[in-house]
Structures are given as C-alpha cells and as structure tokens.
Amino acid sequence: MDALKIGIVYYDQKGQEIITDAFEDILLDEICTKTIYEQQGEEGIDEALNKWEEGETDAILVVPAEGEEKLNPASINGLNMIVWGDLRMAFADEEEDFEQQLEMLRLAMAREFDVDHARIVTQLDAENYRLYDVILTKDSEQGLKDFLALTNGHGVAYTTGRELVCTSPFSPESFRESIYLAKDIIWNRNRYDEAHHNPLPKLFIEKREDKKNR
Q1: Cα-flanking dihedrals φ and ψ of residue 213, to 5°?
Q2: pLDDT-based confidence at 196, cuts 50/70/90?
Q3: What mean pLDDT is reported for the chain?
C-alpha cells in the first residue's frame, strides 16, 4: 500500500502544537502524506470532506479542541468506536436498531480490523478484556469512562458504517495511533474486498446528505 494521504483538521492552537510535535518524528512522513487545512474547526472539516469526496485524500484526522473528549468530532453518522491497541469499544445508538448495529460491528471487525467471528460482549471487564475482541455498549457515558480509566486517557475515536475513514485522538499521545489506525483500516478493507467482493453496506445516512437536507 502506498503512503496514506490524510487530511488533518484542528480546532485551536493546542491542536496545531500536537500536529507539529508529532511530525517531528520523520517516520510519520514515510507512513503518510499530510494535508493540514488552514481553516479550523467545522469549516476545516467541511473542506476536508470535500477533498476526500474529490479523491484527494484517503482519510481524515480531526484533532478536537483542547479539553474536549469527543467520540465523533466530525459529526459523522455511523457506529462510534474508540480503540487503543487490542481494546475496542463501540457505542450503540439508542435511536437505531441494536441488532443492525451488532451486525454492522461484526462486519467492521472482519473488514476493518481483520477479526473474523468477533467475540462481542456488552460490558467491559477490566480484568479479562483480552478474552474478547470488542465491546458494544448501550451506556456510552459509563462505557467511555471505563475505557479511558483502563487506558490512562488514551484512545482513538473512529466511526464505522460508512466508507469515509475518520479518526481522532483522545490525547496528544494518541495522535500517531490515529494515523496508524486509519492506515490499517484502509489496508484491511482493501484486502477484505479483494477476497469477498462485498463492500460495507450503507446502513446509515451519510452526514453530507444530512447537511443537504437541512
């Protein structure tokens, strides 16, 4: 796979500092070709989405505002997740069908994380979390709290259920992992699709379509 073409959006000076510090590691320049948008926040996200739709980037990375912990800073419709190493948690939307979200997660685990027949549970067990592959929780607030307690505040937010790959770090130390995760997801998708010829169904309405309907 060629170097990942990633569009990066930030909200404030702290976000800009995180990006600058991370790319002092020259290895990141070998992994990805970055475009850092001059516009910040929501305007920057709109520009990043446009560039992705035009095929100029493969993925988007959003650095949230300082002090904010968001599972979905780009407001992308889909199934929200947070990932740190082998620990993965997805957050069920009460307004969507739970079984549908469960099936979406199973497919995402196979297609995007290279985990077939994923072992899914509904509650985090801090002592035995390595015995399963992903948690699908209905209690987003408590689930996120438990996850971050176990990872010392680290994690990468990701929304599955659509073709756009958008990641976001929960801490400055998670920034590099946001890039690695995006690259791994795209690589796994390509390999899965070549083997199965079965792209991920569009189970949620694209956020871009939502904006048009407002």
Answers
A1: -90, -5
A2: confident
A3: 91
Q: Which two tokens stand for residue 119?
A: 């072992």
Total tally of structural domains belonging to the chain: 1
Q: Return the top range by mean pLDDT from 27-31, 47-51, 138-142, 197-201.
A: 47-51
- Owning domain of residue 105: 4-213
Instruction: Tell me the Ramachandran region of residue 136: left when phi exceeds 0, alpha when psi lies from -120 to 50, beta otherwise.
Output: beta
Q: Which helix (H) or strand (E) holds 60?
A: strand 59-63
The answer on pLDDT for 205 being more than 90 is no
Instruction: Give 130's DSSP letter.
Output: G
Please give the structure tokens belonging to residue 33: 């070709």
How far, in Å, CA of 173 to CA of 204, rounded?
31
pTM (two decimals):
0.89
CA distance 121 to 190: 27
Report the helix count and the strand count for the chain, using DSSP H and E: 7, 9
- DSSP lists the bridge partners of residue 34 as 6
CB 98 within 8 A of CB 120: no
